[in-house]
Amino acid sequence: MIPIDTQELYTEYRPLLFSIAYRMLGSVMDAEDMIQDTFLALERVDGGRVDSMKSYLCKMMTNRCLDHLKSARKQREVYIGPWLPEPLLTEGTVGSSGGDPLETVMTHDHLSIACLTLIERLSPSERAVFVLREALGFDYEEIADTVGKTPAACRKILSRVRQKLGPDLPQAAPDYERHRDLLTRFVTAIGSGDHEALLSLLAADVTLYSDGGGRVLAAIRPVHSPAHVAAFLFGIARTQGAEGYEIRFADVNGAPGLLFAKEGQTDTVFSLAERDGQIVGVYIVRNPDKLSHL
């Protein structure tokens, strides 16, 4: 048996493996656990039997994620309120060109809270093909080897995914400066109580999702329409402002977002989705279990 230098491989492939796991699971903590499990298992593998370490590791990670998703589906079916992914802070990665492999992985498309929420509609196998192809740019031969299907089957799965997600699927990462400007106007309108200004920013089909997981106060159903979303947001502003929250801008999943903190502990994360300069989605993560890593 030829031993494998797992420490060197961990340094080289951790960013890629994290990107696969986080996009598939929507959980930072679960993604980290999957990485640890993968490299512990790798210590028992004969290095002489591995032709491509990248392919081998990606297959190990994908299979672990698929198994996890199958068990997690039942839990999410009984989840209280909308389920949103754990936010990932990406400061220093957005628009960077420093050459760090984590920067390359984290600045790809399909990392936003909106997109990760959208792919919850997919089956585990559909999600694997979508992430490997659309988010990470694997070719169909690599994907087929990773998920145990033929390249033709993988093409068919991706075609089905595109039909299923339809126009809701973002075609590219949002323009960073435009998104920051929209978020700034959003915060200003709420902070000043300017109802008309806020309504002008909200698309006719805007939806607000609030994830408290049954642990903290949050809307248990999505909120639709500009009028209802505005009323909900102004209600939050009155509550948060009265309780002395610290609010700051942060890069959340590759785009500008907002962090609400109280006594140094992040309490709420805001993220927006925009289309043609208007807000089509507001995503509010409040479940403490999903914020403990921040």
TrEMBL record:
Residues 9-74 form the RNA polymerase sigma-70 region domain. Coiled coil: none annotated. It holds the Pfam family Sigma70_r2. Residues 116-165 form the RNA polymerase sigma factor 70 region 4 type domain. InterPro entries: ECF_Sigma-70_Domain, NTF2-like_dom_sf, RNA_pol_sigma-70_dom, RNA_pol_sigma-70_ECF, RNA_pol_sigma70_r2, RNA_pol_sigma70_r4_t2, RNA_pol_sigma_r2, RNA_pol_sigma_r3/r4-like. Gene3D superfamilies: 1.10.1740.10, 3.10.450.50, Winged helix-like DNA-binding domain superfamily/Winged helix DNA-binding domain. Interacts transiently with the RNA polymerase catalytic core formed by RpoA, RpoB, RpoC and RpoZ (2 alpha, 1 beta, 1 beta' and 1 omega subunit) to form the RNA polymerase holoenzyme that can initiate transcription. This is RNA polymerase sigma-70 factor. It comes from Tumebacillus lacus. The lineage of its organism: Bacteria, Bacillati, Bacillota, Bacilli, Bacillales.
